[in-house]
Amino acid sequence: MTTPLTLHPVALDSPGLAACCSAIAATADSTPFGPADARLELSAGTPRFYVMELQQRSAAAVEKITQHRQVTQCLASADGKPFWIALASPLEDGATIAAARVQLVRVNSGEAIALHRCTWHAGPYFLEPTARFFNLELSDTNITDHHTRPLDRPLRLELR
After folding, report:
1. For residue 14, which of 10, 40, 60, 120 is within the disulfide window of CB 3.0 to 4.6 Å?
2. Residue among 41, 43, 65, 46 nearest 140 (CA)
3. What's the mean pLDDT in 21-40?
């Protein structure tokens, strides 16, 4: 068995994440749309905004990663708690995805993340037995646009 690669979290606004995602931070209600806003791609189908409830997943040995090729995806905690998500660049395109190219991102309470189209991701991960998330994607994303590849080495995620 291959020893897992341990990933430590980086902040959502880390410059090295620009190819994978946009940070969505609170702004005043009257702030006009601008360069700090997430660019959404929802034209390939019917947008779906819902509250997604998940059971806790093991962060001890993550072996697969997924991408959505037709849509951006936005996630935020509906419980007001931090969560973590593992991301790799949309440019990764081998039969396996290099674990060394994956970054673990911490999304704090009051923040949201917009995954760019084709960004590889695993998660969200969280500390509670269950968690709820606001999720914006397409109505059929998990049916017709769910592409999963193995990692070349398992990941152990440090959720801190």
Report:
1. 10
2. 46
3. 95
Q: What is the token pair recorded at 147? A: 């592409």
And the tokens for 13? 């606004």
Whether 31 is covered by a domain: the verdict is no
CB 122 within 8 A of CB 26: no
pTM summary value:
0.96
How many residues belong to the chain? 160
Q: What pLDDT, in 10s, does the model give residues 57-113? A: 999 999 999 999 999 999 999 999 999 999 999 999 899 999 999 999 999 999 999
Domains: count for the chain: 1
CATH for 130: 2.60.120.480
Residues 6 or more apart whose CB falls under 8 angstroms from that of 34 comprise none
Q: Which residue has the tokens 């673990």?
A: 104
33 found inside a domain: no
Distances (CA, A) of 28 to 11, 13, 32, 74, 76: 22, 19, 9, 20, 18
Q: Does 32 fall in a domain? A: no
